[in-house]
Write a structure and sequence with these properties.
This protein has about 260 residues and is α+β, with helices and mostly antiparallel strands. The protein is built from ten helices and twelve strands. The chain has a single domain, classed as 2-Layer Sandwich (Alpha-Beta Plaits), CATH 3.30.70.100.
Amino acid sequence: MKTYSLKPSNLVIACAALLATGCATTGGTQAVSAVQNEAEQETVTSVTIDLPPQALFTFIGFDYKSSAAESEEREIFQSRALPMAAEYGFARHGALILNGTGVGSFQPQGFLLASWPSQAAFDNFQADPRWPEFDALRPEIWNDIRYYRDVQEDGLQLTLRSDKFYTLAIAHINQDNPDDYQTYLSSLGGEVARNGGEFIFIMRDPSLESLSNAAAPDQLTLIEWDDVNGLDRLLASDVYAANRHLAASGTTDFAFYRLRPAL
């Protein structure tokens, strides 16, 4: 079972795409500071995702359509398709909701965390003769929905907390300059830790299913921050400024999102 912990060599991987061009600014801090103060007054809750070996773990980025008719279709989908998926072991583990404006062409409202017992269980679900009816509804419900999937060969244990802040980075690595990217990653581990960041999950080479037929990325990474200002402190650091050019030459595309958990 994979249990993710703080390791500088992995922390820097988690920062790579989201820090590639300094796309997060201190302006986002003011927008979410009130949310932080409110969160500090709430009771802390947590969710632990504990998956066995060979489970299929999924990040689902969702961009819902918002008309009354589309919302009604979404309710139909959720009330009928989700129970069918549960027959095959599908489970939802909470959500990470966008906390400010994301960077990238895909602008979701957030990401659901979900799982299947195995790749075979998911394949059997898709082969169910009832599924095509619901599959046809998806373009009517979402502007786009993206399923990033990866089999956890050794299992997975991942905990999310309501009093933490998160950033999700989605990176396409420049295969012509892979050393630049790795050099950049290795430079930031200590600085991330000094600013209250902790690498908690990485998904390498995921498969991607989407309505937009987007290209699959090379890496999804999730960092947990102790406070809302941690990322901004990192972006303002001398270490980041000295190495950011390597990220630009080491990636071809990226997106990142500031997130808050909905557990």
